[in-house]
From TrEMBL:
Matching PANTHER family: HTH-TYPE TRANSCRIPTIONAL ACTIVATOR RHAS, HTH-TYPE TRANSCRIPTIONAL ACTIVATOR RHAS-RELATED
Record Pfam families: AraC_binding, HTH_18
PROSITE patterns: HTH_ARAC_FAMILY_1, HTH_ARAC_FAMILY_2
GO MF term (any one): sequence-specific DNA binding
Organism: Cohnella zeiphila
Stated name of the protein: Helix-turn-helix transcriptional regulator
Domain HTH araC/xylS-type per the UniProt entry, residue ranges: 191-289
Transmembrane segments: none
Keyword terms: Activator, Cytoplasm, DNA-binding, Transcription, Transcription regulation
Length: 290
């Protein structure tokens, strides 16, 4: 089974100068099979029950469940018989999280979704009601063509994400387990480098290319990247690639060789060594254990 790729923002037929945001309200009668896309997905369950799978892990879904998926996270959803899921979904370009220097603390948390921060968790009734209301207002705004539409959409999206993260932080002693590792760098260009890596980690990458992207020296980018993420560039890329490979091992029947190539490794030995270093076992054993 190979996951489907969905170019969700392209399907929304947005104009060139339009904010890259698409709003959906779905009643899930038919299951959403395993898929991924290159935009961020923020979904909140309004009513109904069911289950979702994110990178091979099952999560119960019920009113108040919030899901935040970074680009290329593998996911599928199904409703329980007779109780279909009603979902508000916002799809948006990850660049929106990098547009303002004032959103740094929010960005730091969201970039860890699926890692130190769970991609799926449940909001209490009061908080979920607030988020659903914001998404409802976003949907109404999305359907109009009035002055300031993009400004309103972005402000409500950031508020909805901030309120969701606020609840998560308050229920986890104020900080995710590894948030201290993500410190605000001196220059915004480093976060542009981080974003580029998240979108292109399965492609050949070099520190020289990233330095060119940032308009800085390789030494500067290397130093500031480690300050920002707590990891050097090579280890960070390995972490993203191995995380993606683990998801494919769990959720698909692709061969291990195919997976190694899919996540960016030209040599199987390099992939196997990196996977074992990060997961504590070879890819074949990992597949048997999940």
């Amino acid at each position: 089974m190979y996951p489907d790729y969905q170019d969700a923002l392209a399907e929304a037929e947005l104009s060139e100068n339009q904010l890259p945001v698409a709003m959906l309200y779905n009643v899930l009668i038919q299951n959403a099979r395993l898929h991924h896309h290159d935009c961020v997905e923020f979904t909140v369950v309004v009513q109904g029950t069911g289950a979702g799978w994110i990178d091979g892990k099952r999560h119960a879904m019920r009113p108040g469940t919030a899901v935040f998926l970074r680009p290329h996270h593998l996911h599928a959803i199904q409703s329980n018989p007779g109780d279909p899921l009603h979902l508000y979904t916002c799809l948006f370009d990850e660049q929106i999280l990098f547009d303002s220097a004032y959103d740094g603390s929010l960005r730091e948390v969201l970039l860890q979704a699926g890692d130190a921060v769970p991609s799926c968790f449940h909001l209490p009734k009061l908080q979920s009601g607030q988020i659903v209301q914001l998404l409802r207002e976003m949907m109404n705004e999305y359907r109009r063509d009035e002055y300031g539409k993009d400004i309103v959409l972005r402000s409500k999206l950031i508020e909805a994400l901030a309120r969701t993260v606020r609840h998560y932080m308050s229920s986890h002693d104020g900080r995710p387990a590894e948030a201290a590792a993500f410190r605000r760098p001196t220059y915004r260009t480093i976060w542009e480098v981080v974003r580029f890596i998240h979108l292109h980690f399965a492609e050949p990458l070099s520190l020289k290319e990233l330095a060119g992207l940032a308009g800085r020296s390789e030494a500067y980018v290397s130093r500031e990247f480690k300050k920002a993420t707590g990891m050097n560039f090579v280890d960070y890329v390995h972490k993203l690639r191995v995380g993606r490979a683990a998801a494919l091992l769990s959720a698909t029947d692709m061969s291990i060789t195919e997976i190694a190539s899919e996540v960016g490794y030209d040599y199987f030995r390099t992939f196997s060594r990196a996977f074992k270093a990060l997961k504590g076992m070879p890819p074949s054993e990992y597949r048997k254990s999940v």
